[in-house]
Write the structure tokens for this entry.
Amino acid sequence: MQKIYIKDLGQYVDQTITLKGWLYNKRSSGKVRFIILRDGSGLLQCVVFKGNVTPEVFELSDKLGQESSIEVTGKVKVEPRAPGGFELDAVDVKLISESKDYPITPKEHGVEFLMDKRHLWLRSNRQAAILKIRHRIVKAIRDFFDDRGFTLMDAPILTPAACEGTSTLFETDYFELGKAYLTQSGQLYAEAGAMALGKVYSFGPTFRAEKSKTRRHLTEFWMVEPEVAFNDLNDDMDLAEEFLEYIVQSVLKDRAEELKVLERDTTKLEAVKRPFPRISYDEAVQILAKNNIPFDYGNDLGATDETVISSQFDRPVMVHRYPSEVKAFYMKRDPENPKLALAVDVLAPEGYGEIIGGSQREDDLDLLLERIHEHKLPQEAFEWYLDLRRFGSVPHSGFGLGIERTVAWICGLEHVRETIPFARMIYRNTP
Ligand code: 4AD
Ligand code: MG
């Protein structure tokens, strides 16, 4: 049988149809029961008039608990005042399966309680809006690269060595081969891909045993990582800004309704247009000084520093050329000042902090070996990566965009825990 969904009701005006879903909410007034039906595609008010249904159906409408699964038959009416613009004049209501004492009521609940009930919390209109925006962001990411000649090349999740430093590795036993680690980034493999296919991107879950309990940190998060042969740092920044503009404008165009549910100030997103400001680390440090923020030159930027820097601009700001000491081993040094790495971080506006980290990669075999030793990394584990510099090395660059921080920013959320269906954080690995 053909299924009809709430989002398509415009095609069924004045027709009598049957919808299946869950009872989202209800209220009553005299001889009328109002059932808000939820079917995953939208919400619909179903009006049950005592005179239009059997006494049994009217009684059922009275008793139904929140999130009971039901089937409602009725006539589709245009109702400009109703959310979605339609209403259903019910002639029949059937119970599919009961729901008693649903734990999440329309009243306020604490976030920890809601996170414990995350499997049910996903049914709320607000969480559905976030998930739909996340999906649109993921689609924009794929479309962007697919339309520009990139090949999707996913990296392994079980890896023999660290990519982003050894302090945040999740470790596991790997048969006779000793230890394996959950990947922190697909980058090193994407570099192999770029040497094979020119332009690639990897897109998958990445893991960091971060001890940080902040609103920006998850232990499992999704990252998309483009890598391009013959791109230098400037090309990398060009790619990053075109990419972010595309993502934000796609969401604005296609998810206006969901942004409204989240009460997002979209004027802030409309401003996300190229070109983005590009400032050096040194200029960023000057901004901190001007704002009387204490900061030791040479350190990495902290969350507060990022917020102060990004608050100077109405769109994402790209901070480039960090001290190489605070950055990863694979980053190329600036030929004009070897104390600096050819790195770029993109800071989102409105205090959302770093959403992209990228760089031009060290393409010289001897310098890369030096870095591996400086960082006390096991050379054997990187022999394959060093091969990329032994056999036709070329300048190349790439970056990683964290999906959850991007969703938090675009949706205007306090915390990344709501941006992923089931968040993994230092104090949470359930449900
Ligand atoms: O800056 P990061 O560590 O860069 C890399 O991993 C590079 N290998 C990427 C590359 O050049 N291919 O991480 C990239 C992004 C950050 O900017 C942030 O958005 C996100 O990944 N990220 C996190 N998101 C949530 N929770 C965490 N613990 C995160 N750590 C990084
Ligand atoms: Mg970073």
